[in-house]
Structure formats: C-alpha cells, structure tokens
C-alpha cells in the first residue's frame, strides 16, 4: 500500500447520511429522518450552552475557594507531600501552550467543513488550571487569566457549532419543505 493511499484512508471526512429506504413509504421515512436530524442539531447546539454553564459554575466555585484562603494552608501540606510546587511562570507557559493548542484544534475543526463535535474535555481542560494556580499562587491574581482563557475557547467553539447548526437546520428545513411539495 503506498503512503499516499494510506493517508487518503486516514483523513477525516465529513459524514453525510443519505436517505435510504428499506421498506415503507419513502416520503414519510424521509420526513421523519429530516425531523430527527433537526432535533439532533438542536441538541448539539444546546450542549455548548450546558458546557458554558458548567464552566461558569466551576469558575464561581474556584473564585469562592480562592477567597476563603484554604489554599495557603493546604499549600504547606502539599509541599510536604510532593515537594516544591511549580512556579507561576511554568504554569503560565503550560496554560499558554494548552490554550494555543486548543485554539488550533478548534479552528482546524472549523476548516475541515465537517460536522463539528463537542467534547466535555473542552470544559474540564481550562478548569484544571484553577487548582494548580490555587496551590502555586495563593493570592489569586491569575484567576482572571484562567477564566478568560477558558471562556474565550468555549465561546469560540460554541460560536462555530451554532453557526454550523443554524446553517444545517436551514438546509434541513428546506429539505422538509421540498418533501411536502
């Protein structure tokens, strides 16, 4: 098998379902399938909103815990168990690389012209930095940076999903109208 042929098989391709009728009335089956596709598109667009709500909830909890000053007490115990904690400069570097990688993946999925996906790790990845910064920077000065980094990525991805679903719902609605005629 040549290298070029193997690459063609590995490339991600958009999935387009075609209406296939096994038995029954083709018109009613296609109408039901279009209605099902529209409902799945609505679910996909709402998933991003739930992710935003979850991230905002995690952010509010992290902010409340940073105000209680629990991290400074736990920091001494944590250092005794695992050793010296990383510097905030190292955390800033890791956050920057993580943010840039996520941005490239989000924009790359947008350019692939396929159905965008949504994964819950997009909520968890920015939220992971809250406890890291809480233990390494007990003053809480980096909370806004982590919050904005996560919020920008989630809003960007949700915006791409909403644009895609709006366009796809419009196409499916037009298809449904054609089936009625």
Please give a handful of descriptors for the protein shown:
transmembrane helix; elongated; 181 residues; mainly alpha; transmembrane; Menaquinol oxidoreductase; 78% helix; membrane
Low-confidence parts, pLDDT < 50 over ≥5 residues?
A: 1-27
Instruction: Please indicate the percent range of residues in DSSP E strands (runs of 2 or more).
Output: under 5%
Helix content: over 70%
How would you sum up the global shape?
elongated
The sequence of SSEs as H and E is HHHHHH
Mean pLDDT: 75
Decide which structural class fits the backbone.
mainly alpha
Q: Kindly give the count of domains.
A: 1
Radius of gyration: 23 Å
In DSSP terms, counting alpha (H) and pi (I) runs of 4 or more, how many helices? Answer: 6
Distance between the termini: 49 Å
Main sheet makeup: none
Count every beta strand, where a strand is a DSSP E run of 2 or more residues: 0
What's the multimeric state?
single chain
Could you give a short description of this structure?
This protein is an all-alpha fold and 181 residues long. The chain has helices spanning 3-10, 26-68, 70-82, 88-111, 121-136, 143-180.
Please give a structural write-up.
By secondary structure, the chain is mainly α. The protein has one domain. It is 78% helix and 0% strand. It is built from 6 helices and no strands. The protein has helices spanning 3-10, 26-68, 70-82, 88-111, 121-136, 143-180. Helix 2 (26-68) packs antiparallel against helix 6 (143-180) and helix 4 runs antiparallel to helix 5. The longest helix is centred in the first third of the chain and has 43 residues, at 26-68. The radius of gyration is 23 Å and the shape is elongated. This is Menaquinol oxidoreductase.
């Amino acid at each position: 098998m040549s290298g070029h042929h193997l690459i063609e098989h590995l490339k991600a391709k958009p999935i387009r379902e075609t209406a296939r009728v096994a038995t029954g009335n083709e018109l009613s089956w296609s109408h039901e399938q279009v209605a099902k596709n529209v409902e799945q598109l609505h679910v996909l667009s709402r998933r991003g909103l739930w992710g935003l709500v979850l991230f905002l909830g995690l952010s509010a909890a992290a902010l409340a815990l940073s105000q209680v000053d629990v991290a400074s007490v736990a920091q001494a115990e944590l250092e005794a168990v695992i050793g010296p904690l990383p510097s905030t400069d190292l955390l800033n570097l890791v956050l920057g690389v993580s943010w840039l990688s996520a941005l490239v993946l989000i924009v790359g999925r947008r350019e692939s012209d396929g159905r965008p996906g949504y994964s819950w790790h997009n909520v968890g990845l920015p939220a992971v930095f809250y406890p890291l910064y809480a233990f390494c920077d007990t003053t809480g000065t980096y909370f806004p940076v982590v919050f904005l980094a996560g919020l920008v990525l989630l809003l960007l991805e949700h915006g791409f999903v909403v644009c895609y679903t709006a366009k796809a719902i419009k196409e499916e609605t037009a298809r449904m109208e054609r089936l009625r005629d």
